[in-house]
Each structure stands twice: as C-alpha cells, then as structure tokens.
Amino acid sequence: MKIRKPFVAVIGAGQVGATAAQRILEKGLSDVVLFDVVQGMPQGKALDLMESAPIEGHDKRIVGTNEYKDVAGAEIVVVTAGLPRKPGMTREDLLSLNAKIIKEVCLNIKQYAPDSKVMVVTNPLDLMTYLAFKTTGFNPERVFGMAGVLDTARMRYFIAERLETRPGEVNAVVLGGHGDLMVPVSSHSTFKNKPVKELIPSQELAQIEQRTRDGGAEVVALLKTGSAFYAPASSVAEMVKPLLSDEKKTLPVCAYLNGEYGIQDIYFGVPAELGKKGVERVVTISLTADEKKALELSAHKVKQGIEELKSLGLL
Ligand code: TXD
Fold it and tell me: Which of the listed residues 95, 121, 182, 214 should we mutate to test ligand 1's pocket, taking the one with most ligand atoms within 8 A of CB?
C-alpha cells in the first residue's frame, strides 16, 4: 500500500518506536514509515499493525523498511534508535554507542528527509537532541526532544493517584534535563485550576516529586529487561498532533535555548509552543528561587555532558 503525505517516519522499531507507530495509527494522526536496521522486523511489525486496522477501524497505513530512501518526504522523523544500558556497561559506553547511532541516523535524515522536523527520543535525551541538531545542521526549531510530556504525565498520574481523581484533570510542570536532576515545578501544578500545593501536604508533594524523578527507574526495576514504552509512546503521539495540525499547543519539550531562562546553547526541557514549523516559541514561566537554583544545576549537568561528548570526539 502506498504511504500518503503528510506521514511520520519512526527510526527504531523497538518497544518505543513500534508502540508510538501504533498510537499514531490508532489515533488517526497520519500514515507511518517504520525503519529499523534489523532485517524483516519492521516489516513484520508493520504487517501485524495493518492486520489490526480492520478491527481498530482506522484508515491509516504503515510500511516497515530497512532502507532510508523510504523516509524521503516525511513531515516528522521520530528517532528511537539506540541501545539500552546492559550489565557491566558504563554511562560513557552507552553515551558513545548511542551517539554513534544518532549520528548515523541523523546523517541519513539530512540526506533523505532534509525538510523534516526531527523528534529525538533516544537517551541520554538532552545530549542526543543536541547531537541531532549539530549533525543535521537543521534550524533549531526543527530539532527537539521528547521527555517532558512523559515526565509531566508521570507526575500528573502520581498526583491524581493521591487525590483519587482522573489523571487528565491534573496539570503538572517539569523542567530541565531528562534525568536525576529534572525539576518538577509544584508551584505551577494544578488540579482543576487549583494549585496542588493547597491540596497535598508539602512532605507528600516532595515524595511525589522524587517519584517523578525516579519514574523511569521504577519501571525498569519492575520490568527487569527493557524500559518504559507505553507512556513514552503516548508522549510521542501527543507531540505529533500539534506538529501536524499546526494548533500551536504548549507542551513540555526538550528545546534549544538561546538565553531563555538565562541558559545558552543547550537542549533542555521547557514549555514550548508546537506547530507546523516545529518549536515555534519557548514559553517562560515564573519560578521560585529554589526552582531557579535546581534548574541551574540541571543545566550545568547537561553542559558537562556536552563537554564529555566533545572529549570523546563525538561532537
Ligand atoms: O523519555 C524519553 N525520551 C525516553 C527515552 C523514554 C523511554 C525510552 N527512552 C529511550 O529510547 C531508551 O533509553 C532508548 O535509548 C530509546 C529506545 O528505547 P526502546 O525501549 O524502544 O529500545 P529498544 O526496544 O531496544 O529499541 C531500539 C531499536 C531496536 O529495534 C534496534 O534494532 C534499533 O533501535 N536500532 C537502530 N535502528 C536504526 N539504526 C540504527 N543504527 C540502530 N541501532 C539500533
């Protein structure tokens, strides 16, 4: 079946990539091209997903491929290709392995889909997004990362669980790098427009913030093999929506900062407006002194990572 424009290309047909493809199809957002280096695997998953279309009742199409030429014409390229950390592997090992994969993937995106927008998902997220920006040479508004939608979704769920309410009625804000130093911003988190600070005692809220920071590790510890993919896939689809529809929705995005929040030349989690051009505007919100301090620390960690990439000869 022929893929119709506008379509999304997903690079890496593993847990997050394949589930993101499923969400995009079943929400009726667009057709999908699913790419992986493993022979037959993306084709098999695409066929399986097409065979569920009569039951799910959507009219979207997906093809699997091992050839980059098939991503030509993609409106958005979602990059989930990478390796998870294995026992005995250091953080630097993972950093350099995934950096090499991201470089290879991004050179192909530059060649075959030069007009696309690139959404990076691969960890370490802030660094891989920066590397994608440098490798493609695209305008920074066309290169961004997914992490904040996931981190805030986790916090929203934990708050909803505590308040015994619907998760969709809770809003939460998480800023900064996607890692131990992310900054959950309780001062801007609300339930039906009421600050959660007025509803949950501060000690319990601090526990929720910590559980949010540890959200990825909590799932990894339970799964034993692999990391979270259902909520990450939902988060990818949530970002795809405004990028295709041009609705200018403000979401937490790993975006390029050029002085916003007093931070220069890194990719970092901030609220941003998404539309057809990509990241159309970084939104600045007021922060308490403690939140500002935490954000500076998180930015410092990301800068250290960039230096590490440079010292490994990868940037
Ligand atoms: O919030 C976030 N940003 C994240 C990030 C949330 C969840 C997962 N996060 C990261 O996404 C995770 O730490 C990994 O770095 C990626 C992908 O996670 P996933 O769970 O999907 O990993 P898998 O199942 O191992 O899938 C990776 C796929 C696999 O099919 C490989 O064959 C493929 O990547 N792969 C490649 N594809 C294309 N090109 C190359 N070179 C390549 N190498 C491996």
Answer: 121
Q: Which distant-in-sequence residues (6+ apart) come within 8 Å of 255 by Cβ?
A: 140, 144, 145, 267, 268, 269, 270, 272, 279, 282
Q: Are residues 178 and 306 in the same domain?
A: yes
Note the pTM of the prediction, 2 decimals: 0.98
Question: What is the structure's pLDDT at 180?
Answer: 87
178 is catalytic: yes
Residue 71 has a pLDDT of: 98
Q: Clarify whether residues 214 and 141 are in a common domain.
A: no
- 78 and 118 share a domain? yes
Q: Could you read off the pLDDT of 225-259 as tens digits, one per residue? A: 889 999 999 999 999 999 999 999 999 999 999 99
Given a cut of 50, the residues of the chain with pLDDT beneath it are none
Structural domain count, the chain:
2
Ligand 1, atom 29: closest residue by C-alpha: 14
CA of 286 to the centre of ligand 1 (A): 35
Do residue 191 and residue 244 come from a single domain? yes
Q: Do the domain assignments include residue 2?
A: no
Per-residue pLDDT, 86: 74
Cβ-proximal residues to 304 (8 Å cutoff; 6+ apart), any chain:
none
Alpha-carbon distance of 308 to 304, in angstroms, equals 6
Domain that holds residue 45: 7-145
Q: List the 170-171 sheet strands across, edge first.
A: 170-171, 190-191, 194-195
